[in-house]
């Protein structure tokens, strides 16, 4: 997809709030890792639905064979984000999904945090959202929460909820209550493949600060109103939705209705390794479709966990290069 648009929208200072570590790894790096182990490189594009995508994702993750390789993936994710004008990123990471093969989960998290920190300057930064998988049960979820609590304020800024949405959110509500007590953001995925009830559950049961996707909220006018009134940000990923068959095309994507209803949205790439679109391209394509990308970039910063010394200058820079912000 070409990155035309308004000739610069992709360079707007912004926060990238919805991407998954292994899903943002450089393809060339994954191919290199595969060669090292003499295994076939993961097929990065051979999928048309969520189930096949999960298989491709796990194959890519399993190519990472050491803590050093994991740290390099994280560093390159951070470098690519800076290149795309992201002054702040919140990267979903699920250390328990490695099953202990690279060591203890603390060591994995430390490697990721070190890699993300390497290329940062004074006015930029990166953090981790530890991801709980709905399909893996609350015991593993609780272990993830404990790790998140231990690193709250030390690189971990949120607790996420990922995986097949047919597994209800309710059993995870106590974990998110504890996460909030630890000062972490509640940032579950919801409303990607399931209807508006899933978004409502994320708001009511998990008290979500932001929601990953959330696009099916457009089917419920009352919910749209609630989202607009409470200004809970939806971290929307249009190209991901198109590639997984959740939305038909950019013109028909629910983001247009969300914006028209006054809902706060951010633009994100989700898993750029697989979907072939990075966050800069998402902004450029959104601009080409008439979406208010400067306001969207401002939402991404305001709803992030970025510290003031990152968020403040970025918001001021955004205001100085745009007409009065909405
Ligand atoms: Zn996601």
Structural notes for this entry:
This protein is an alpha/beta fold and 326 residues long. The chain has one domain (9-320): TIM Barrel (Alpha-Beta Barrel). The protein is 44% helix and 15% strand. The chain is built from 14 helices and 8 strands. An 8-stranded parallel beta sheet has the order 1-2-3-4-5-6-7-8. Strand 2 (86-93), helix 4 (105-117) and strand 3 form a beta-alpha-beta unit. Helix 3 runs parallel beside helix 4, helix 5 (137-150) packs parallel to helix 6 and helix 13 runs antiparallel to helix 14 (308-320). Residues 1-6 have low confidence and may be disordered.
Strand content: 5-15%
Just name the CATH architecture: Alpha-Beta Barrel
Rounded radius of gyration (Å): 18 Å
Q: Give the strand order, joined by hyphens, for the main sheet.
A: 1-2-3-4-5-6-7-8
- Note the overall shape: globular
Mean pLDDT level: 93
Name the helix and strand elements from N-terminus to C-terminus, one letter apiece. EHHHEHEHEHEHEHEHHEHHHH
Ligands bound, unique: zinc ion
CATH class: Alpha Beta
CATH topology: TIM Barrel
Gist?
Helix content is 44%, strand content 15%. By secondary structure, it is an alpha/beta fold. It has an 8-stranded parallel sheet with strand order 1-2-3-4-5-6-7-8.
List the helices and strands and how they pair.
Elements: E1 14-20, H1 27-36, H2 50-61, H3 67-83, E2 86-93, H4 105-117, E3 125-133, H5 137-150, E4 156-162, H6 173-181, E5 185-190, H7 196-204, E6 210-213, H8 221-230, E7 233-236, H9 238-243, H10 255-260, E8 265-267, H11 272-275, H12 279-288, H13 293-302, H14 308-320
Parallel strand pairs: 1-2, 2-3, 3-4, 4-5, 5-6, 6-7, 7-8
This protein binds zinc ion.
Zinc ion is lined by residues 18, 20, 189, 212, 270.
């Amino acid at each position: 997809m070409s990155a035309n648009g308004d000739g610069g929208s992709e360079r707007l200072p912004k926060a990238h709030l919805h991407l998954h570590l292994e899903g943002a790894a450089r393809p060339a790096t994954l191919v290199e890792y595969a060669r090292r182990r003499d295994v076939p490189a993961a097929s990065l594009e051979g999928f048309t639905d969520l189930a096949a995508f999960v298989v491709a994702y796990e194959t890519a993750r399993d190519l990472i064979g050491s803590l050093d390789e994991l740290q390099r993936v994280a560093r390159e994710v951070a470098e690519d984000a800076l290149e795309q004008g992201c002054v702040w990123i919140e990267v979903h990471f699920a250390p328990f999904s490695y099953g202990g093969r690279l060591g203890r989960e603390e060591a994995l998290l430390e490697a990721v945090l070190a890699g993300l920190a390497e290329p940062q300057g004074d006015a930029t930064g990166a953090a981790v959202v530890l991801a709980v998988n709905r399909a893996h049960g609350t015991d593993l979820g609780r272990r993830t929460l404990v790790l998140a609590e231990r690193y709250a304020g030390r690189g971990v800024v949120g607790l996420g909820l990922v995986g097949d949405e047919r597994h209800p959110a309710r059993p995870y509500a106590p974990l998110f209550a504890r996460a909030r007590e630890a000062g972490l953001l509640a940032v579950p995925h919801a409303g990607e493949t399931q209807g508006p009830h899933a978004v409502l559950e994320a708001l009511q049961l998990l008290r979500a600060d932001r929601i990953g996707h959330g696009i099916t909220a457009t089917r419920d006018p009352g919910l749209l109103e609630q989202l607009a009134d409470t200004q809970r940000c939806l971290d929307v990923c249009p190209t991901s939705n198109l590639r997984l068959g959740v939305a038909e095309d950019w013109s028909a994507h629910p983001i247009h209705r969300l914006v028209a209803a006054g809902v706060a949205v951010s633009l994100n790439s989700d898993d750029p390794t697989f979907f072939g679109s990075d966050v800069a391209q998402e902004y450029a394509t959104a601009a080409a479709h008439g979406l208010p990308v400067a306001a969207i970039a401002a939402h991404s910063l305001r709803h992030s966990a970025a510290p003031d010394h990152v968020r403040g200058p970025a918001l001021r820079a955004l205001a100085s290069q745009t007409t009065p912000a909405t």
